[in-house]
Amino acid sequence: QVQLAETGGGLVQAGGSLSLSCKASGDTASNYALGWFRQASGREREFVAATAWTGLTPYYADSVKGRFTISRDNAKNTIYLQMNSLKPEDTADYYCAASGMVLRDPGGVDYWGKGTRVTVSG
């Protein structure tokens, strides 16, 4: 079992920034790729960004490339999502996710966090 605990989120004006954190704990969390998905009201959950513990290049959804940055602190078993130049369409519940494989599709996620809400006002 891997436990994921998100912090951060909140309300921000368009063009602003927010940072999310996700602490992983449990059974060999370092063996998993960690990342973020989001789900807006009435829409399907979608991939945002992901990273592995082994130094592989992080990857992003096209919609957030150049604005969001995912990073990790191996010593703290924590990943971060720095979100800049936020747009109203970034409004969603953001979920931390862990997968033993490539993290891209919600169907391939092994563990989910409970989610944290990000609201971007226009």
Overview of the molecule:
The relative contact order is 0.32. The strands form two sheets. Strands 2, 4, 5, 6, 9, 10 and 11 form a seven-stranded mixed beta sheet that branches. The chain is 0% helix and 52% strand. It is mainly β and 122 residues long. The protein has strands spanning 2-8, 10-13, 18-26, 33-39, 46-51, 59-60, 68-73, 78-83, 92-99, 111-112, 116-121. It contains no helices and eleven strands.
Question: Helices, strands, pairings?
Answer:
Elements: E1 2-8, E2 10-13, E3 18-26, E4 33-39, E5 46-51, E6 59-60, E7 68-73, E8 78-83, E9 92-99, E10 111-112, E11 116-121
Parallel strand pairs: 2-11
Antiparallel strand pairs: 1-3, 3-8, 4-5, 4-9, 5-6, 7-8, 9-10, 9-11
Keyphrases for this structure?
7-stranded mixed beta sheet; 52% strand; globular; mainly beta; 122 residues
The oligomerization state is single chain
Strand content: over 45%
Order of helices and strands: EEEEEEEEEEE
The profile of the biggest β sheet is: 7 strands, mixed
Instruction: Return the structural class.
Output: mainly beta
Estimate the mean pLDDT confidence. Answer: 93
Give the distance, in angstroms, between the N- and C-terminal Cα atoms.
Answer: 39 Å
Report the uncertain regions: none
Number of strands: 11
Radius of gyration: 13 Å
- Work out the helicity level: under 10%
* Outline type: globular
Query: Total number of helical segments?
Result: 0
